[in-house]
Automatic annotation (TrEMBL):
One of its GO terms (molecular function) is ATP binding. InterPro entries: DEAD/DEAH_box_helicase_dom (IPR011545), P-loop_NTPase (IPR027417). It comes from Paxillus rubicundulus Ve08.2h10. It holds the Pfam family DEAD. SUPFAM superfamilies: P-loop containing nucleoside triphosphate hydrolases. This is DEAD/DEAH-box helicase domain-containing protein. Residues 19-52 form the DEAD/DEAH-box helicase domain. The lineage of its organism: Eukaryota, Fungi, Dikarya, Basidiomycota, Agaricomycotina.
């Protein structure tokens, strides 16, 4: 799943951070998650990637 995420995002020139990849994998596995990081760091991408897959 991580390879698919990286492949899709690299085609769009968006390179995910480590926390984004980890969060996406947790969400894709159906687990609940809480993401805490600063403003503008890309939390929304953590939600959008699993929705698009």
């Amino acid at each position: 799943q991580a390879c698919v995420i990286v492949y899709i995002l690299s085609r769009t020139m968006i390179i995910p951070c480590d926390f984004q990849l980890q969060a996406c994998l947790v969400i894709l596995n159906g687990c609940d998650s809480v993401i805490t990081t600063g403003t503008g760091s890309g939390k929304t991408l953590c939600i959008l990637i699993p929705l698009l897959l």
